[in-house]
Structure formats: structure tokens, C-alpha cells
Amino acid sequence: MTIFKWENHSNCLQGAFFKDEEFGKYFITEKTNVRIELSERVNLETEGQNVSITMDPKGNCSFHITNIGNKIMYVFALEESFVLNGDWITLDDIGLNSTFPLFNGADVLEALAGICCLPNGNFICGNVQDYITAIEQICKKYPNKEYFFRGHYYYKYALVPSLYRKKQYFDNENFMYMDFKTQFYNELSNKKYIEILTTMQHYKMPTRLLDTTSNPLVALYMACDKPNNYKSMNYGIGEVIMMKEDSKNVKYSDSNATTLLSCLAVLETDYKQELYEKIMESLDKNDPSIYRNSLAYRRFVAEVNNELPVFDESFFTPEVLLKPRHVKVGMINERIIAQSGNFILFGLCNYQTGEYVKLDTVTKERIFIVHRDYILKQLEMLNINAGTMYPDKDHHSVAIIKSYE
């Protein structure tokens, strides 16, 4: 890792270039007691190499001052196009309590949280106030849309439903579905496909549903609340993903598109794979007869007819089975009500390779979350805690105990 010297009149500070795919590119100085007046051009010098960056509005960086305890750090936020003929450092290079001489990972996260709106368009927030400000800024960019939020504890967690996380899950989706329905037959025998999937999701069964919420504070809580089975990572960084969608593309639990997607859960994996391949071939060759004449499609229609006896195949377009959809479900249990819960319902994928069609129907904004213990205390003052998010006796007990700790 290369350490640069920042020469500014009579003052000299050391710094390093930092780069991260999610957070962007920066030049960050050591912590100092010195407050420095900036000139329009800043020269960074190191042995055998000169680097020059130019301040906004003419150039390719913006400047921020962050207080780290009783010290000051100077942070230059660089454009993505900035090229360095030298060594960048990353979060993997500097741990939270690293011996790197200039700063550690915790210092970097503190500095970035002070910026809040990162140059690459993402956000990083360390308190509820900044988080709400970030939400407001995103809403102004995309007015007249419906917004859905998902919070998770680790910022590199993939936006994928539990069914796709293990091969043995999606290989046996239909068996798990039928086993669950058989165990609770009296309760579920007259329920729709989506209602059974929602119930399975509630009891932590692997499904093709991905939880979302219409309440941004609920998503923030989920990004801060440590899961019971969480394995320790290097950095305490959570994430809230904010998704916008046109109202016409949002489905309801009673819609035909929801029925078509949810009934895939009862098809054997071989049929789903064949149906996926035939649809992709049909779209490639612009020939609907390829999938319509397949045994997998006839099997699919038979399942659809169980819930839609008057299903009109002439209105069916195969693309509906490939695109994940935001679904607003009925308030069927206390947890969905408490969490303002909705789902993303996933469709067909290539089961042989484990690939799935990504969320190309929505625009995703990323908000990284740090200082999570502090945020949980703020949310507690807003009556958002384990007891209100999970309205059962076990979680209420946990909330009560924590309030006395």
C-alpha cells in the first residue's frame, strides 16, 4: 500500500487512496489536529510519483472534513473515472482495528457516514435522521412511484429468496410444498397457492418469496437486528435496498400473474426446467408453439386450472413467468401487519445452473447502515423493537429484557 504526502503550503499530511466497489473512490488523510485552508489544486506527492486532483466545480473531486473523536480527517471524494497509477487500499486491507499507520476501517466508515450521499449515488447512514433524509432524496428523484424496502444485516447479502440459496431446496420445492400442506391440511386445504407460500415463509420454510416492506423504518430495523444464526463478518455494515415500481406493475395476491407464478411451486423440477428452456427457445425463435406443445406447459396449465378454471391461454405471455414481481398480500398474520409486509415473487430460472432472472423490473437504491447499536436505541424511542416487529410472546420477552439491560 502506497502512502502519499499531501503538501499544502507549510503543512504536510500523509494519506492513502481508498477504493471500494460499493462505496466509491477516495483520498483519505491521516487523523490530525491541523485545520488546513484548501487551494483550488491539491498536489499529492510520493517518491517517484506525482498525483494531481482538482477541486469542484471544475475538477473531479469534492472535499469533506470529518471529526474522528478529537481529530480531523480530510476526505476527497473522487469520480469513478479517476485513474491512479499506484496502489489503492480496500476494506479488506484495513480491518476495524488495523495497524495501518494512518487510519483503520472504523475511521473510514465514520468518514463516509459523515458524507452520507456517496459520489457513486449510494448512501451510508449512521443515524435515523440521515436515513430519513436519504429516503426523501431518493423519493424526489422518482416521484409518483410505489416504494418497497428490504433491510438485511450484512451489506453483501444477495437479493435472492431462500429457495435459490441451496440446490437441494429448489430441487425439492414441490415436495417441501406438499409436505407442508399435508402437515397442516385442515388449515391449508382450501387456501390459494400464494397463501400457502406466504404461510410457509412465515414459518421459515424455503420459498420463492423474498420479504419486503412498505415501511422504511421496518427495513432499517431489519438491517440493524442481528439474526440468531448470523456468522461474524469483518465489518458491521448493514444495508437497506429501496426499490421503486410503477403501480401498474405491482400485483396483488388475487391477481392472475400471482397465481401463475405461485403455482410453479408444485411443479416437479424437471417440468420447470423444461418449461424454462422451451420458453427461452420460443422467445429466441419468436415461435410460441415451441412451449405450447411441450408436456411441461400442459402440466403447468393443469395446475393453473386448479385455481383458475377459466384460465384463457390466449392472453398468456410467457414473459410473466420469468420476471420477479412485487406482490401486495393480504394481512393474513400479525407479523405481516406489524412489518407492513409484502413480497417479491420469483418465477422460473435455469435449475440446472442455479441461475435466476434478476430483478430487472425495478430500480434499486442502496443505503448502507453503520453504528447499528445507536440506531437501534433511536428506533426504540420510536417504539420499533423486537416486540413490535415480531408480535409473539418470545420476542416480546426479549424486548422487555433488553429494555432493562
Describe the structure.
By secondary structure, the protein is of the alpha+beta class. It has 2 domains: 118 residues; 221 residues, no CATH class. It is built from 15 helices and 17 strands. The strands form 4 sheets. A 7-stranded antiparallel β-sheet has the order 5-4-1-2-3-7-6, covered by helices on one side. Helix 7 packs across helix 13 and helix 9 crosses helix 11. The longest helix has 17 residues. The chain is elongated. The two termini are 43 Å apart. The model has no long low-confidence stretch (mean pLDDT 85).
Give a quick precis of the structure.
It is built from 15 helices and 17 strands. The chain is of the alpha+beta class.
Note the main sheet: 7 strands, antiparallel
Q: What is the distance, rounded to the nearest whole angstrom, between the alpha carbons of the first and last residues?
A: 43 Å
* Overall shape: elongated
Low-confidence stretches: none
Number of domains: 2
Q: List the total number of helices.
A: 15
Radius of gyration, whole Å:
25 Å
The amount of beta strand, in percent, is: 15-25%
Please report the total strand number as a whole number: 17
